[in-house]
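With this grant's support, we have paired protein sequences with backbone structure tokens. One protein thus recorded is set out beneath this paragraph:

_____
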Amino acid sequence: MASDHYFSATPASAENLRRIRVTLAGRPVEVTTAGGVFSPDHVDSGTGVLLANTPPPPAGGHLLDLGCGWGPIALTLALDAPHATVWAVDVNERALDLVRRNARDLGLTNVNAALPDDVPDDVVFRTIRSNPPIRVGKNELHGLLERWIPRLDERSDAWLVVQRNLGSDSLQRWLDATLAGGYTVTRAATGRGFRVIKVRRHGSPPTGAISVP
């Protein structure tokens, strides 16, 4: 159902709300998921690899979960960094509603679930964590990363998890070739067929988008 995939803005499929038990930030919790969002029955393998291979988030500032789905990464960031502001960004309105519901149920007041265009332009991020939507296609994926990675604060990191057989190595090469000076792109971890790519920003955040050669 390509017309109603998890990156649809308004899924037409039945909502089919369900409650599942998962472990986030090292603790068992119960969350609500639904049809028409990514991995509604469990924390998917890629996200699990990402969460297991990233350091604790910064204690304060703005943190970004890009392509949040029902919220496993955003909720983990919020649990681990209660004094930070976590932005859970997705194009899927149903996913954003689920993040808001789950944050409320877990007593988290530091999560902003937002459409991409609703994030203020002056917000820069102390970290970005993402299991990006590879299946949207290379051009859209590249555009997504070109939009958000430049919003890393100086001396801050983005962590991306990508399945090896879906192009993780070529994406790493593209990031390395495309990002302007001031970034370092490395493979931080490998597990269960996934790569965790780390993008380190060294200099001050730019005022515009990445310049693509």
In short: Residues 93-105 form the longest helix (13 residues).
